[in-house]
Design brief:
With about 260 residues, this protein is an alpha/beta fold. The chain folds into 2 domains: about 80 residues, Elongation Factor Tu (Ef-tu), domain 3, CATH 2.40.30; about 160 residues, 3-Layer(aba) Sandwich (Rossmann fold), CATH 3.40.50. The chain is about 20% helix and about 30% strand. It is built from 7 helices and 16 strands. β9, α4 and β10 form a beta-alpha-beta unit. Bound molecules: flavin-adenine dinucleotide and FE2/S2 (inorganic) cluster.
Length: about 260
């Protein structure tokens, strides 16, 4: 039996800066996770931290990481060929089976786009399994836009609406928070829609509220929670809210459950 706490080495295949502080690391990895799951990533002597999957491919997975502290600074100091150590995948991802056949509204704020990106790519790669998709993306400023190449490709296949909180010289697009994109959305017939909302807590709160005001029911909305985690296995209680362990019961929740997960 394999030890679930035992990290496995993963070689860095490629490093791609996305913004000044966010970088995508491509890691050699053979067993594909489900979109929305996460891994605990460790570096000897520096520690361990949870990260979502921003890309899944043949023999690799991507993680898009923001440099904020000890572990992430250690990862940013690595080069292709170096190793990080992974245990996982953990948690419940996005329910692709339940999303199938539906029209998707994907609303992602900032780095919240990272865990949702594999869902978008799956839906675009299998258009016959879904009834279309609207992609709403909000970033702080044009410099904070992640996955520019991928977004350009998505725009060839689906409506992609982008807004930034703060304009910058030369930005031709929309300025405002992501909820301002919702009134323009055609949500008919309502029962055909499923929404996925991931981003900072305030963005998720107001986006979910705006979607429910537009008539979506709680069971049509899915969110993903980033909580402080340690074991990732439902043992330590770091991630517990009420009776739920975000690491094993989530991080993806249907809003019928998520609406009660208040600290
Ligand atoms: C399920 C899950 C998925 C995640 N996916 C990603 C991802 O795809 N990309 C990514 O960049 N980050 C992700 N995170 C957050 C990431 O785990 C933290 O940024 C990381 O633990 C920071 O480690 P550090 O040692 O570099 O920073 P530390 O030195 O531990 O902390 C630096 C700063 O970041 C803050 N911080 C640390 N952890 C969190 C957290 N969980 N939420 C909010 N603030 C935090 C601290 O308060 C401190 O201000 C995810 C977290 C969870 C729980
Ligand atoms: S992280 Fe330990 S119980 Fe969830």
């Amino acid at each position: 039996m394999t030890n679930p706490y035992q990290p496995q080495p993963a070689a860095i295949l490629d490093i791609r800066p996305e913004t000044a502080i966010d970088t995508t690391f491509r890691l050699a990895w053979d067993t594909p996770p489900s979109p929305g799951q996460f891994y605990e990533v460790s570096l000897p002597r520096l520690g361990e931290a949870p990260f979502s999957i921003s890309g899944i491919g043949d023999g690799y997975l991507d993680m898009t990481i923001r440099k904020v502290g000890r572990v992430t600074e250690g990862i940013f100091a690595l080069q292709p060929g170096d190793h990080v150590y992974l245990r996982g995948p953990y948690g419940h991802g996005f329910p692709l089976e339940q999303l199938a056949g539906k029209r998707l509204v994907i609303a992602a704020g900032g780095t919240g786009l990272a865990p949702v990106k594999p869902v978008i790519q799956y839906a675009l790669a299998h258009p016959e399994r879904f009834n279309g998709m609207e992609i709403l993306l909000g970033f702080r400023s044009p410099e904070d836009i992640l996955f520019r190449e991928e977004i350009a490709a998505w725009q060839q296949q689906a409506p992609v609406h982008i807004t930034v909180d703060r304009a910058a010289p030369g930005w031709p697009g929309k300025v405002g928070v992501i909820t301002e994109l919702l009134p323009g959305l055609d949500l008919a017939p309502l029962d055909q829609f499923q929404a996925v909302v991931v981003g900072p807590p305030l963005m998720m709160k107001f986006t979910v509220r705006a979607l429910t005001e537009r008539g979506l029911c709680d069971d049509q909305i899915w969110v993903s929670y980033e909580r402080r985690m340690s074991c990732g296995l439902g043992k330590c209680g770091h991630c517990k809210i009420n009776e739920k362990y975000v690491c094993v019961d989530g991080p993806v929740f249907n809003f019928t459950e998520a609406r009660w997960l208040i600290d």
